[in-house]
Structures are given as structure tokens and as C-alpha cells.
């Protein structure tokens, strides 16, 4: 098992397939983009699959989520999915994406074994989308959402970040849109993971503020906390509302900063260049790419992986005065 000294066991593997992205979201990277990782430093498809195999068959990984950057930019994604779902025991698979290109690829991804998607969408207004993402691609995202649902990549979840003086007024509209279309909406507090290191606590929209905005128009009822487990979202039932399939509607709030859930964390991350991160906010990484390419056995790699997870800290430390933002931005870490 991938266990740490606080009794937490990592069973959810987040695999970054690339640090590249076709958007330039203001809370992630500057308008001009970033200096991308050189191709020789990236894990090949075969190397990725070998590490996923080790994680699933030797270390107890039960769910693999593919992230980026934008994972749809990885040409080998269908083959990576097919190789992952061919493992025994078969892990659950998910994809976190901005959905640009998903309208075209959703059927093939479903056929390759993808179970569901999380789509990043922060606004329903084209002009606000362009201001936040610096691209005119809202229609592509909406088409991608529809295609994912049609392909059976359900439940389709939407991840939304509210920014002060940009889209903070859209919380209720986003929830109405999601309920009407059968998407499960999750609001996420903005985290200090931007490449510009411009995150400020006093400008962040908090979980309390998000809930206040929603409760102005919806009757929210807290879901049973015992069923939350390691899920990052605090879930609320929307009283009197149902999804088109008849299921009760819900909405989640991920208070990563003000309502941390580190004590139940079951995640471990593998970057596109083969580094293990035992926490999203870790300042250190453990290299698996070098031993992999130097001929290490599966058992040796598994032992290195376990050693990387064991010293995981009890929490991310954002609320500690000594907190330092990771040197890598979210696009290079993987969500």
C-alpha cells in the first residue's frame, strides 16, 4: 500500500499527461503561456502505462484520473486509457479536461474505457470566458459537455472557480444550468497554484461566500457527512430540484483553503515527467523516471514510490504563516 505515517492510504492516482494547455486561464498561467517541458523529459506512453500498472497491481491504486495541462492534447490518450482499463483489477478511470476537443473525441474515449469526466467551466458568459481563459472557446466547452453525456461518460461533473469582480455573480446561474442539463457542479476555492504567484487570500472567493450566493436562490441541505469519505467536495442536496434523469440534484463546494480535507486525503500524483508528488502543495518530488529508464525492476520502483508517499505531511499548510507556494504551477503538477 501507499501509506503515510498518519494512517492515510493513497488509492487515487492523478496522472498528468502533459503540462501544455490550449487555454490561458488567469488563475493558472500568464497570457503568453509557459515554457513547456522538453519532449525527452516526458514519460512515453509505454513508461506511463508501466508506472500505472505498478500502482494498480502492486500498490493498491483503485482509481486513475488523467489530468494536465490539458490531457486531450496527448495523442496517445486512447491507447493509455485502453492499457489502463485492461489491468486486473480494473481501476476506475476519469479525465479532468477543459473539454476543448471533447465533442470530437468523447465516443472514442468511452470506447477505450474512460468512465467519466470532470470539465473545467467557470462561466456561461462568452465575454467573461474570453476574459478569464483568454480564448473564445466557450461554445467548444459546452459542446464537449453535451458529447460527454451522450457518450455515457457520466456523471459529468463541472469544476468552477469563482473570481472576484469577474464571475462571482454567476454561482446561481451555473447551478441552474447544471441541474437543467444533468451535470454535477462543484465549486472550487481558488488555490495558490498559479504560475504568476499572484494568489491572494483577501481576493479569494471563500466556500462560505459561495454558499451564501447559492442560498439566495436555492434551498441547500447538507448531505450526510458520513458518506463523504475522502471526497474533496462538501456535498449539498438542492431541495425541490431534480436532474433530468429524476435523481435528486446536488452541488458540491471544495473548500481547499478554508475547509481543508487533508485528514482524509487518498490521492497521489504523477507528473508528466515522472515525478511523484504526495501532496498537491508539496515542495518536494520523488523521481521515478530516472530509475525507470535505468532499468529498475517493478519491485524497486514500487519501493521508491512507497518511500515517496510515507513522509507526506499532515496538511497542505496554506493557513500556516510559513507556507510557501509550490514552484510548479497547477498546469505542470496535474490536478
Offer a concise description of the structure:
The protein is of the alpha/beta class and 335 residues long. It has helices at 45-59, 77-85, 102-112, 126-133, 138-150, 171-181, 207-215, 289-293, 298-309, 330-333, and strands at 2-3, 9-10, 12-16, 63-67, 92-97, 116-120, 157-160, 184-188, 220-222, 234-242, 248-254, 267-270, 275-277, 286-287.
> Mind summarizing the main beta sheet?
12 strands, mixed
Order of helical and strand elements? EEEHEHEHEHHEHEHEEEEEEHHH
Q: Give start-end ranges of low-pLDDT stretches.
A: none
Shape: globular
Percent range for β-strand residues? 15-25%
Based on secondary structure, the structural category is alpha/beta
| Separation of the first and last Cα atoms | 22 Å
How many β-strands, per DSSP?
14
Considering DSSP H and I runs of 4 or more, what fraction of the residues is helical? 25-40%
Number of DSSP helical runs: 10
Strand order of the largest sheet: 9-10-11-8-7-6-5-4-3-12-13-14
Nearest-integer average pLDDT: 93
- Radius of gyration in whole Å, from Cα? 19 Å
General description of the model:
The chain has helices at residues 45-59, 77-85, 102-112, 126-133, 138-150, 171-181, 207-215, 289-293, 298-309, 330-333; strands at 2-3, 9-10, 12-16, 63-67, 92-97, 116-120, 157-160, 184-188, 220-222, 234-242, 248-254, 267-270, 275-277, 286-287. With 335 residues, the chain is of the alpha/beta class. Helix 3 packs parallel to helix 5 (138-150).
Amino acid at each position: 500500500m501507499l501509506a503515510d505515517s498518519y494512517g492515510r492510504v493513497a488509492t487515487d492516482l492523478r496522472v498528468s499527461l502533459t503540462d501544455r494547455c490550449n487555454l490561458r486561464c488567469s488563475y493558472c498561467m500568464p497570457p503568453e503561456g509557459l515554457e513547456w517541458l522538453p519532449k525527452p523529459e516526458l514519460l512515453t506512453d509505454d513508461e506511463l502505462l508501466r508506472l500505472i500498472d505498478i500502482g494498480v497491481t502492486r500498490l493498491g491504486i483503485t482509481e486513475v484520473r488523467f489530468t494536465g495541462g490539458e490531457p486531450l492534447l496527448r495523442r496517445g490518450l486512447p491507447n493509455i486509457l485502453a492499457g489502463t482499463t485492461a489491468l486486473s483489477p480494473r481501476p476506475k478511470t476519469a479525465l479532468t479536461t477543459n473539454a476543448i476537443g471533447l465533442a470530437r473525441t468523447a465516443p472514442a474515449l468511452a470506447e477505450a474505457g474512460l468512465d467519466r469526466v470532470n470539465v473545467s467551466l467557470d462561466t456561461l458568459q462568452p465575454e467573461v470566458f474570453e476574459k478569464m481563459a483568454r480564448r473564445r472557446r466557450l461554445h467548444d466547452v459546452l459542446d464537449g459537455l453535451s458529447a460527454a453525456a451522450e457518450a455515457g461518460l457520466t456523471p459529468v461533473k463541472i469544476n468552477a472557480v469563482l473570481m472576484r469582480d469577474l464571475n462571482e455573480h454567476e454561482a446561481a446561474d451555473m447551478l441552474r444550468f447544471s441541474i437543467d442539463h444533468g451535470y454535477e457542479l462543484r465549486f472550487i476555492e481558488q488555490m495558490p497554484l498559479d504560475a504568476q504567484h499572484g494568489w491572494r487570500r483577501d481576493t479569494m472567493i471563500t466556500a462560505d461566500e459561495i454558499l451564501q450566493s447559492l442560498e439566495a436562490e436555492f434551498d441547500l441541505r447538507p448531505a450526510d457527512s458520513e458518506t463523504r469519505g475522502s471526497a474533496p467536495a462538501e456535498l449539498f442536496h438542492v431541495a425541490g430540484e431534480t436532474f433530468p434523469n429524476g435523481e435528486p440534484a446536488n452541488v458540491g463546494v471544495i473548500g481547499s483553503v478554508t475547509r481543508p480535507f487533508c485528514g482524509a486525503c487518498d490521492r497521489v500524483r504523477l507528473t508528466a515527467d515522472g515525478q511523484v508528488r504526495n501532496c498537491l502543495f508539496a515542495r518536494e518530488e520523488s523521481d521515478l523516471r530516472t530509475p525507470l529508464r535505468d532499468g529498475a525492476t517493478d519491485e524497486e520502483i514500487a519501493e521508491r514510490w512507497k518511500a515517496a508517499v510515507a513522509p507526506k505531511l499532515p496538511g497542505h499548510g496554506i493557513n500556516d504563516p510559513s507556507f510557501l507556494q509550490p514552484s510548479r504551477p497547477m498546469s505542470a503538477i496535474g490536478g
